[in-house]
Write a structure and sequence with these properties.
It is a single chain. This protein is an alpha/beta fold. It is about 40% helix and about 25% strand. The chain has 9 helices and 10 strands. The strands form 2 sheets. A 6-stranded mixed β-sheet has the order 6-7-8-3-9-10, sandwiched between helices. It has a 4-stranded antiparallel β-sheet with strand order 2-1-4-5, covered by helices on one side. Strand 4 and strand 5 form a beta hairpin. Helix 3 packs parallel to helix 5 and helix 5 packs parallel to helix 6. The protein is globular and about 50 Å long. The N and C termini lie far apart (about 40 Å). The mean pLDDT is about 95.
């Protein structure tokens, strides 16, 4: 069953065309890792999927919600985008938590504000999710009292609180000290094991090898190559993919 359908997606910032016609289909429960050099359009693609960035052209469908980019901005289109966003969890590089709210209040915010969930029900949901990400004993801590890894896990719980169809991760460990990376990746891995559909932009190659059903390599706004993690890491077909992996492996082994 198809969960995400992207057709001929383009995004330009002025004269700079960052996405040059992306076609990608992602099935329900599939974990897709997107990798590529800086400036290749990975994060822009992710942000276009839930209209944090308005695409210039193309079609995006998540679940039953389909939006044609570049179309007339009317009431119906705005409503469909709102519904699409509700079904899309987004985890940023920086944690984007409310500093004046505790961990549990941060997780409760979405269900109350977006779904109109009653406070006690939202609290029950939030408590369960904080336990799920290993922070059941940090419910009443403020972000400043948490490590970077703990803050990112709160951010993941906050996204899960909206009961999304898909989760989008934009380099979720890039702002973390190396020793805190693993605790976040373990949470993401557990979501994969539960069948959550996920699109993950990351430079964590070992994690990609372990978790990804499919790896997509992007460069200069296009998909250069895609395949299973085994295909891409052990037997890449495109010269540009080989060059990128060689440089990444060299940095990792230094």
């Amino acid at each position: 069953m198809t969960m995400i359908q992207i057709e001929h997606l383009k995004k330009a910032f002025g004269d700079n065309e960052v996405l040059k016609g992306i076609d990608l289909t992602i099935d329900k429960s599939e974990v897709v890792v997107i990798m590529g050099p800086s400036g290749s359009g990975k994060s822009t693609l992710l942000r276009c999927l839930n209209f944090l960035e308005e695409p210039t052209d193309g079609i995006i469908q998540i679940g039953e919600y389909q939006v044609h980019a570049g179309g007339k901005i009317d009431r119906h289109r705005k409503k469909v985008i709102r519904e699409l966003r509700k079904k899309t969890g987004f985890v940023f590089q920086s944690f984007n938590l409310f500093p004046h709210k505790t961990a549990i209040e941060n997780v409760m915010e979405g269900p109350i504000a977006i779904h109109g969930t009653k406070t006690e029900e939202a609290r029950t949901i939030a408590e369960a999710l904080l336990v799920k990400v290993g922070l059941g004993d940090r419910c009443d801590h403020f972000p400043a009292q948490l490590s970077g890894g703990q803050q990112q896990r709160v951010a993941i719980a906050r996204s899960l609180a909206l009961n999304p169809l898909v989760m989008l991760f934009d380099e979720p460990t890039s702002a973390l000290d190396p020793e805190l990376v693993r605790e976040v990746l373990l949470v993401i891995k557990s979501l994969a094991e539960e069948g959550m559909t996920m699109v993950i932009v990351t430079h964590e190659m070992n994690f990609a090898k372990e978790v990804a059903d499919r790896v997509v390599f992007m460069d200069e706004g296009i998909i250069v190559e895609q395949g299973t993690s085994k295909d891409i890491f052990l037997n890449p077909k495109e010269e540009r993919t080989k060059q990128f992996l060689y440089k990444v492996e060299a940095v990792v082994t230094e």
